[in-house]
Amino acid sequence: MQSSQLELPQEILRINQEQSRKFMELATVRSAYRESHSTEFALTKCMDGRVDVTLITGTPIGIITAFRSVGGIHNLEWKKFRRCLENWLNHAKAKKRSAVLIVTYHWSRGALQFGCKGFNYNLQAAVDGMSRFRRQVESHYRGEIWPVMVGLETDTNSLIVHSPKGEILDLGLVYPDTGKSFLEEKLHSMFVGFPESVLKDLASLFLGNVQYINNNKVKSSEPLDHQEQVLAIGDYVEWLPFGFALKLGLHDPVLKQSIVVAASIIHDNLLSGRIPNNGALFISVPYWQPNQRQAAITQSNSLFQIANKSIRENYPDMRNFFNPLVGVMDLSTNGFEKI
Fold first, then answer.
1. Residue closest to 98 by CA, chosen among 137, 147, 135
2. Same domain assignment for residues 177 and 254
3. CB 3.0–4.6 Å: which of 5, 138, 194, 229 could bond 279 by disulfide?
4. Contact 54, 63 (CB under 8 A)
5. pTM tops 0.70
6. 115 pLDDT exceeds 80?
């Protein structure tokens, strides 16, 4: 998007208005999906916009809860993250739904340098790191949260499913006409002890990826490098499109450090000529109830001060690069409100 500095925040607002409209229009679709699927899904993912599991599984918007961080690296010792995770788990329990946490990493088959910078483009390090976190979740929430590790090969948008025993199912190699029953049988052998309802819902999710892959075969032969112009801090910002924004979650215990990492990627984009000389610093704190709005405003303003200071101290040549867009999000509509 080759927007001017003043136009870029307006572009973000336009995108949000469109996504909010779609979100509200799909309320009936989401309700029907939840009626036929008794599993609540969340996933941990990288700040990189390449990982869009909602899109590549054909899942309705608003079904999958996302927790983002640099490299997708999470740890249950992070108090803010653990609180967010347990709030999600308690929501699933209240709705009498099973809880599945999808732990993701991403990589590029065409060129490792188009993989995850959070792991220094090292695929094995990403697999090992996500495996450790999956085991941590399994140990702490045995029988409450069912963790599943999944890789995303970004050249083809194929999901690679890992079993706890080390078995791998590459959905990019699954025959296009494969039925859900085949995937259920395969997952049953890979994830021994998982509830039948969870396996059925996972099979449905993964079948969506098989269908997406085979309906989107026409792609560029070259993987895409980073081209982000926007540094986004907030939760429920999945609607910001691929290649446009790097996204950091509010639960990150080393947020200042993560802001610097994200700014370094955008700085490199600028120096390499992949983006024009303008960007945006987007801050969005969500709220559910009207009486939570003022606290969200206070937090959003505080986050802007932290981010702005971190960028200016570490990248003084970018002090005029990021045009600020600070606000809150009403989760009943997914609509962003500038403050």
1. 147
2. no
3. 229
4. yes
5. yes
6. no
